[in-house]
């Protein structure tokens, strides 16, 4: 459903993403892990059509994002790490506008908006301005918008940041339900517990390159510690020696 | 509707409606004040335009010729303004605007997004021109008893006239952004823009247009306007617009220039759309790349701060404020415009022809000295509202850093005060002393004005700092937004009243002294006492404003921390 092929992004002489390839099947939740500055957000922004790749291509639901951007974007829901929401619109107005961007018209739009607001427990705030929302509520509103048009694939950047335990559980439930309905989800996260609990497969990126790919068990074996917790595996693969230095500094 | 480009403009319309429906504290006062100011400017432009047209009416064909040239000249000035404004606005609407992050992930056709953004760019770039040109054309129309055709033609002329330069400006931006990172291009444009405006303003003033107002200068007037024409002028949209409006004023119709204007506007739109579809995404993508920070380190500021007898907290706050200000081109480049205005201000005093009224020159000079004090006070208020008032808000989302540190709000705000006071005092004191020297006013007035401006600086900088802390806008995108907030407007109202009060309190005793001095008579003792009371009153008023402003600001910040 989401196919990334040899994706490269260079900023002048600096290569932020270096030949990344990955594939997310319908119904799969694919974890995208890596330390800060590894190239996760840049990759996701290229998938969403916000950044132009230096080379390589992204295909969503059979449509190349570069060649057929409208068809590819229509099939994708994107949840960025720093989402933009019109602060002076109400939650209902924002979702109605968002539905219009995806070509939704008619009487059933508001039914769908209400369905999403109910799902993400925001119905009571439908007529409140977005500027009065907490970070967690804004995050849930963006997710409402991302799932509003019934996307076939979703790319999500750090979905759990700023959410309380109840909010985090809600999001996990929604992602699982969507995955069961055949939606492909590519999720970048730092919360390794979430990745371990939810993802069918993982890709670990370091300095712009994919260094490991597979199920959690396959990655454990790759790192040479079959029974280890994912955190230890992740640190071993991405250079955990920095942690020791951190310990000494503190 | 949902497929039309206008659908993408809905958030702006809904946001405005919501803002109006959910008014915040002071919004109504601010709206009324701005409306009153707007009506005042509109009326002034209308009457000025009507007066000039009425004057020119007396010169038959020459009057018509001058009116025609004048219209063409006004449109030419706006052409330059709209082109530059188009470049700057397009940078924001097409490349830096936050909502693009949302819109570009949606399945919207590039063409649809282009039309929505271009409509927004044209509206944002040209509203000021429309606000200015409407009363001017109305003034001309009313005096010439123009028919409805004139007003309809004018309205139909302004639209394509605005589209053409804004399209050229947008195309330049498209090119620039594909060559430089957008944020670097914005800094470059800001600097160039302020330099350009400053130079034009100085140049126009140096032409001494006031000489053209004399009756004996009428032949020079035609020469003055003619010198602004060139062989290229008839090829410019400003010429077509001027001709079109003038023809309709005379009751005729100019299909050639109307055709030229509308067809060029159409070609510009289509050409720009094609270029946008080809290069917008690559430009937007480049604009998302964080430019490698190339900045001045300003080691000198650290060295100077080290020598200052300040606590480490105040020293670091000072260094931070100065460095951030100097590294933000959009901030300090506005000082260039201010510098140009100051130069013109001083130049006006230099060319002041008081010799034409020899018997009165001594008295008039001293009245000018008081006027100068008032002007310096208004410059001071403007600088304070623009640069000092937003200083607390400028901490923005980083204000938590101050609040969680063991820094007393008292220390924090006083540091802001001194950082603002030194440059403001230097500027206004230089302005006052230099202007009074050029005027060669009485030594007493020189001294009084120099001392008064010191007290005024303390009062207005203290008030701006305090009110800035009482009405902060930590989420504002830029300082202009903070200056235009309720607190900023309230500050300007209080500042203007204070300047007027100080001029009255200082002016009356000074002119009384000069009155008795001119007549070589001693000042009666009760008058002397009254004069002393006025001076003491001025000192008390400024000191109270200063300290009260600061205290209320500190209290507000303390309340925020509690």
- What are the secondary-structure elements of chain A, in order, as H or E? EEEHEEHEHHHEHEHEEHHH
Rg of chain B (CA only): 27 Å
Tertiary shape of chain A: globular
Look at the helices and sheets of chain A and give the structural class: alpha/beta
So what's the oligomer here?
A: heterodimer
Low-confidence stretches of chain B: none
Query: What spatial form of chain B do the alpha-carbon principal axes imply?
Result: globular
Strand content of chain B: under 5%
* Sheet with the most strands: spatial strand order of chain A: 6-7-8-3-9-10
Total number of domains of chain B: 2
Distance between the termini of chain B: 50 Å
Q: Largest interface, per-chain counts?
A: A-B, 35 and 31 residues
Order of helices and strands of chain B: HHHHHHHHHHHHHHHHHHHHH
CATH architectural grouping of the largest domain in chain A:
3-Layer(aba) Sandwich
Count of distinct structural domains of chain A: 2
CATH fold field value of the largest domain in chain A? Rossmann fold
Write down the overall mean pLDDT of chain A.
87
> Hey, roughly how much beta strand do the residues of chain A contain?
15-25%
Reported for the largest beta sheet of chain A, the result is:
6 strands, mixed
Low-pLDDT stretches of chain A are none
Give the strand tally of chain B: 0
Notes on the protein architecture:
The complex is a heterodimer of chains A (250) and B (562). With 250 residues, chain A is α/β, with parallel strands linked by helices. Chain A has 2 domains: 2-75 and 151-249, P-loop containing nucleotide triphosphate hydrolases (Rossmann fold), CATH 3.40.50.300; 85-150, no CATH class. Chain A has helices spanning 40-47, 69-74, 91-101, 108-119, 135-148, 165-180, 192-198, 216-223, 230-238, 241-249, and strands at residues 2-11, 14-24, 29-33, 55-60, 63-64, 76-79, 153-157, 184-188, 201-206, 209-214. In chain A, strands 6-7-8-3-9-10 form a 6-stranded mixed beta sheet, with helices on both faces. In chain A, strands 2-1-4-5 form a 4-stranded antiparallel beta sheet. In chain A, a hairpin with a 2-residue loop joins β1 and β2 (14-24). In chain A, α3 packs parallel to α5 (135-148) and α8 packs across α9 (230-238). Chain B is mainly alpha-helical and 562 residues long. Chain B has 2 domains: 5-9 and 27-287, no CATH class; 310-561, no CATH class. Chain B is 79% helix and 0% strand. Chain B contains 21 helices and no strands. Chain B has helices at 10-21, 27-57, 60-96, 100-103, 110-143, 148-179, 182-206, 218-227, 237-249, 255-287, 299-307, 312-327, 329-332, 334-350, 361-388, 399-404, 409-439, 443-470, 479-483, 486-518, 525-561. In chain B, α15 (361-388) runs parallel beside α18 and α20 packs antiparallel against α21. The longest helix of chain B has 37 residues, at 60-96. The A-B interface holds A 11-12, 45, 48-52, 69-74, 76, 78, 80, 83-90, 93, 97-98, 100-105, 129 and B 2-3, 7-8, 10-11, 14-16, 18-19, 22, 98-99, 101-110, 281-282, 285, 288-290, 292.
């Amino acid at each position: 459903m989401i196919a990334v092929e040899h994706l490269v992004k260079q900023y002048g002489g600096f290569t932020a993403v270096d030949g990344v390839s990955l594939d997310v099947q319908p119904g799969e939740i694919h974890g995208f892990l890596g330390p800060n500055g590894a190239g996760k957000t840049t990759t996701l922004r290229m998938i969403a059509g916000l950044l132009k790749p230096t080379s390589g291509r992204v295909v969503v639901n059979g449509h190349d994002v570069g060649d057929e951007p409208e068809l590819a974007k229509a099939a994708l829901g994107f949840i960025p790490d720093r989402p933009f929401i019109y602060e002076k619109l109400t939650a209902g107005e924002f979702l109605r506008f968002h539905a219009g961007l995806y070509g939704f018209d008619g009487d059933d739009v508001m039914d769908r908006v209400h369905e999403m607001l109910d799902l993400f427990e925001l119905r009571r705030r439908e007529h409140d301005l977005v500027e009065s929302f907490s970070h967690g509520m804004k995050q849930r509103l963006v997710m409402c918008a991302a799932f509003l048009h019934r996307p076939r694939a979703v790319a999500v950047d750090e979905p759990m940041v700023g959410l309380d335990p109840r909010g985090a559980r809600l999001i996990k439930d929604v992602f699982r339900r969507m995955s069961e309905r055949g939606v492909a989800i590519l999720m970048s996260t730092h919360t390794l517990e979430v990745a371990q609990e939810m993802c069918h497969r993982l890709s670990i990126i370091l300095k712009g390159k994919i260094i490991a790919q597979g199920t959690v068990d396959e990655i454990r074996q790759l790192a040479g510690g079959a029974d280890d917790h994912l955190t230890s595996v992740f640190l071993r693969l991405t250079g955990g020696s920095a942690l020791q230095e951190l310990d000494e500094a503190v | 509707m949902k497929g039309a480009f206008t659908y993408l403009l809905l958030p702006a319309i809904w946001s405005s409606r919501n803002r109006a429906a959910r008014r915040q504290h002071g919004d109504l006062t601010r709206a009324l004040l701005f409306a009153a100011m707007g009506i005042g400017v509109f009326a002034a432009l209308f009457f000025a335009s009507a007066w000039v047209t009425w004057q020119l009416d007396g010169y038959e064909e020459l009057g018509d010729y001058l009116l025609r040239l004048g219209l063409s000249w006004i449109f030419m000035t706006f052409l330059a303004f709209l082109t530059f404004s188009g470049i700057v606005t397009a940078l924001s609407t097409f490349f830096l605007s936050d909502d693009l992050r949302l819109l570009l992930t949606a399945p919207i056709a590039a063409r649809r997004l282009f039309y929505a953004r271009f409509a927004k760019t044209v509206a944002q770039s040209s509203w000021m021109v429309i606000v200015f040109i409407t009363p001017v054309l109305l003034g001309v129309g009313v005096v010439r008893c123009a028919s409805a055709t004139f007003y309809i033609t004018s309205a139909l002329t302004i639209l394509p006239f605005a589209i053409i330069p804004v399209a050229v400006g947008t195309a330049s931006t498209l090119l620039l952004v594909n060559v430089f990172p957008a944020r670097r291009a914005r800094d470059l444009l800001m600097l160039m823009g302020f330099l350009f405006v400053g130079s034009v303003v100085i140049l126009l003033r140096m032409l001494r247009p006031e000489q053209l107002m004399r009756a004996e200068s009428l032949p020079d007037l035609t020469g003055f306007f003619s010198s602004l024409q060139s062989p290229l002028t008839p090829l410019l949209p400003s010429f077509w617009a001027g001709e079109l409006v003038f023809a309709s004023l005379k009751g005729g119709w100019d299909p050639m220039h109307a055709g030229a204007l509308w067809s060029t506007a159409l070609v510009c739109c289509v050409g720009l759309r094609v270029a946008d579809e080809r290069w917008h995404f690559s430009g937007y993508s480049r604009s998302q790349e964080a430019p490698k920070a190339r900045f001045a380190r300003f080691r000198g500021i650290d060295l100077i701060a080290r020598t200052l007898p300040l606590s480490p907290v105040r020293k670091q706050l000072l260094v931070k404020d100065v460095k951030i200000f100097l590294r933000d081109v959009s901030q300090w480049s506005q000082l260039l415009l201010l510098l140009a205005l100051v130069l013109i201000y001083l130049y006006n005093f230099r060319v002041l022809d008081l010799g034409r009224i020899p018997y009165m020159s001594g008295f008039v000079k001293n009245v000018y000295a008081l006027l100068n004090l008032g002007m310096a006070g208004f410059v001071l208020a403007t600088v304070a509202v623009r640069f000092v008032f937003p200083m607390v808000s400028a901490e923005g989302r980083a204000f938590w850093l101050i609040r969680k540190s063991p820094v007393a709000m008292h220390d924090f705000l006083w540091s802001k005060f001194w950082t603002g006071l030194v440059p403001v005092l230097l500027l206004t004191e230089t302005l006052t002393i230099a202007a009074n020297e050029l005027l060669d006013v009485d030594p007493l007035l020189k001294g009084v004005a120099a001392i008064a401006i010191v007290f005024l600086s303390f009062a207005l900088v203290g008030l701006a700092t305090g009110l800035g802390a009482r009405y902060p806008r930590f989420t504002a995108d830029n300082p202009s937004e903070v200056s235009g907030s309720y607190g900023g407007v309230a500050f300007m109202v209080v500042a203007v009243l204070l300047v007027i009060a100080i001029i009255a309190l200082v002016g009356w005793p000074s002119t009384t002294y000069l009155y008795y001095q001119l007549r070589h008579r001693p000042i009666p003792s009760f008058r002397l006492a009254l004069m002393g009371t006025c001076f003491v009153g001025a000192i008390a008023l400024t000191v109270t404003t200063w300290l009260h402003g600061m205290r209320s600001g500190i209290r507000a910040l303390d309340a925020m921390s509690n």
